[in-house]
Predict the 3D structure of the following.
Amino acid sequence: MQRFIEIAAGGELNPLVPHTSELIAGTIAFTLLFLVLRSKVVPMFEKAYAARTEAIESGIERAEKAQAEAASALVQYTDQLSKAQEESQAIREEARIQGAAIIEELRAKAQEDAARILANAHASIEAEREQAITSLRNEVGALAVDLASKIVGEALDDQARQSRIVDRFLDDLEKSK
């Protein structure tokens, strides 16, 4: 082979082409370096690669788990929010109903109080009216007896007679109305 190289170079030795001993020494050094790298360095790279892969996969799993938990929390929050809104609506409706009932109760109580006050006023007015009628009857009776005594010219001292005259006089007055 060396002869072929020498001939190809024009009979002279080519400085770019290495000697055979250099090729053998280079091949042995390359093989030794390859074996050392393969036995010592490559396992460390593979170990680092496996750790990195595991860290990435666990990070992805944690992220997916966190995302699932966040979605679950969002659903739970949404459910709680809708329940709270429904509950507040129910409380408002109940308060409105209770308010209407209280207003109706107060209105009924006010009407009862007004009716009671009105009944008391009517009773008081009726009692005063009866008292006024009795008082007027007595006064009119006394005036009628005095007038009749003066007209008749006799004393009307008899109580029964006075009562009859007064009653007759008042009846005549009521009929003339």
Residues 71 and 77 are 10 Å apart (CA to CA). The chain has one domain: 2-176.
